[in-house]
Amino acid sequence: MRRHGPAYLERYGASLLPSHARAIDAILDCRTPAMGGHIAACEQCGTEHLFYHSCRNRACPQCGYDATQRWIGEQEVWLLPVPYFHVVFTLPAELRRIVRSHQKELLSVLFKAAFQSLSDLCTDPHYLGGQVGALAVLHTWTRTLEWHPHVHMLVPGGAMAPDGRTWLPAPPRRKRYLVPVRALAKRFRGRFLHLARRALPGVSFPDIPWGKRWIVFAKPVVQKAEKVLEYLGRYVHRTALSDHAIVHCDDKTVTFRYRDSRDQARKTMTLPADEFLRRFLQHVLPKGFHRVRAFGLLHSTHRDTLRQLQLVLARPATVDEPFERTPLPRLRCSECGHTSLRVVSRVSAAEILALLNESHPPRIPTARAPPIRPPRATGAMPP
């Protein structure tokens, strides 16, 4: 960002989306004196440490770990003791550009169409015959940062009967699938196009070959629902790429590491700096857009019902071993090695600069270079 951000902003600054500009500012300031910070003293040796604050922007690759762990913990409380299914709804390539141009409207439509399609089939007595629930998380990227909107859903393997009191488990013959994937894909196609045209009545949508199959993926969760929650949680409060993935950066290009989904091999990709920034920033969602949504039985309005189901469906503790979450890491004193740091004061940006000018400033365990404020100028629209 610091090496190539100024040129990118000079070229595209006038037409840059506000959410993209905020993301650049936040990443530049994150964990620098500009964000302010706090001083923590070690209770063992008395050494003082200066910690810079995080920006907490969803696009920042350094932020979100603590928030992610909290989110996963909150969701685990409401898991049901039943088998779960992992369902993924993907839009075809012909629609990706128009969805990127109308993200607030069409990404919301993607959520609605996905759950309504699943719910309609599950309500059919031939399959489950009741109301289902789903926890949905939006992803917009491939492993090479291309725009690829799709929704992951964690779905309990059962439904609530129309009487509102009886749990209808998925039949044993459907251990490998919840509903037929082909039927679900056809229903998803029709529901998405209907809702999208109603949301954007004045917009023309590209033609999609009628015979083209829309991709819907569904399989039973083998490694417990908690593991799928961990997978989904990685991107709830974080972005598509981490700092560790970038292996080289020079005056013209950026090289990053990724795993090829076709052969699962580790590979690298080198892109022009402008193209890398464009790919990265296109996954910054509009302000206020919710990337995570709960539907049906898993919606917050059904908490009482979920709690009753947990009690009714509870299994003996010996059936499954309890899932143990890794505790949040504690800050360690770099002088004596003890994890006994205690916050003693908060400091502003001006106070940090004064501390850094002292002859014996506090230790800075995670320091970054001061932010560079690139100029904002008129320019062309990013491709």
Strand fraction band?
Answer: 15-25%
Q: End-to-end span in angstroms?
A: 18 Å
H/E series: HHEEHEHHEEEEHEHEEEHEHEH
Stretches with pLDDT under 50, minimum 5 residues: 316-323, 367-379
Tally of strands: 13
Biggest sheet: strands side by side, in what order?
Answer: 8-3-5-4-12
* Sheet with the most strands, sense and barrel status: 5 strands, antiparallel
Q: Please give the count of helices.
A: 10
| Structural Rg | 24 Å
Judged by helices, strands and strand pairing, the structural class is: alpha+beta
Share of residues in helices: 25-40%
Average pLDDT rating: 85
Judging from the principal axes of the Cα atoms, what is the shape? globular
Task: Explain the overall architecture.
With about 375 residues, the chain is α+β, with helices and mostly antiparallel strands. The chain has a domain at about 80-240 and about 285-310. It has 10 helices and 13 strands. It has helices at about 5-10, 20-30, 65-75, 95-100, 105-125, 180-200, 225-235, 275-280, 305-310, 350-355, and strands at about 35-40, 50, 85-90, 135-140, 145-155, 160, 165-170, 215-220, 245-250, 255-260, 265-270, 290-295, 340-345. The strands form 4 sheets. It has a 5-stranded antiparallel sheet with strand order 8-3-5-4-12, sandwiched between helices. Strands 2-1-13 form a 3-stranded antiparallel sheet. A hairpin with a 3-residue loop joins β9 (about 245-250) and β10 (about 255-260).
